[in-house]
Amino acid sequence: MDCACESQFEWTTEYYYAALLEDGSLWRWHFHYGLDTIVDSSGKGLLAGLIIGMLGLFFWKYRRKTAY
Fold first, then answer.
1. H or E stretch covering 45
2. What are the UniProt keywords, alphabetically (predicted)?
């Protein structure tokens, strides 16, 4: 048994799934994709790149300062 439905935002689609396994257990999961996930991934990548860049710049300046 599975179903899919649209979310309240037209640029994001949410899917809700449920599966009844042979042992009688019910598994449910849901995921969404669209503009929301693209913005979320881009934001996380931007933040990670900013942190890595700041650390790299700090250590590069520190190494340059102590090289002489």
1. helix 35-66
2. Membrane, Transmembrane, Transmembrane helix
Beta strands 12-20 and 26-34, pairing class: antiparallel
Quote the CA–CA distance of 40 and 25 in Å, as a whole number. Answer: 33
User: What is the reported pLDDT for 10?
Assistant: 54
Q: What angle do CA 24, 26, 30 make, to 5 degrees?
A: 160
For every residue of 6-18, DSSP letters joined together read E-SSTTEEEEEEE
DSSP 67: -
**pLDDT tens column, 5-58:** 544 555 566 777 888 888 888 888 877 667 777 788 889 999 999 999 999 998
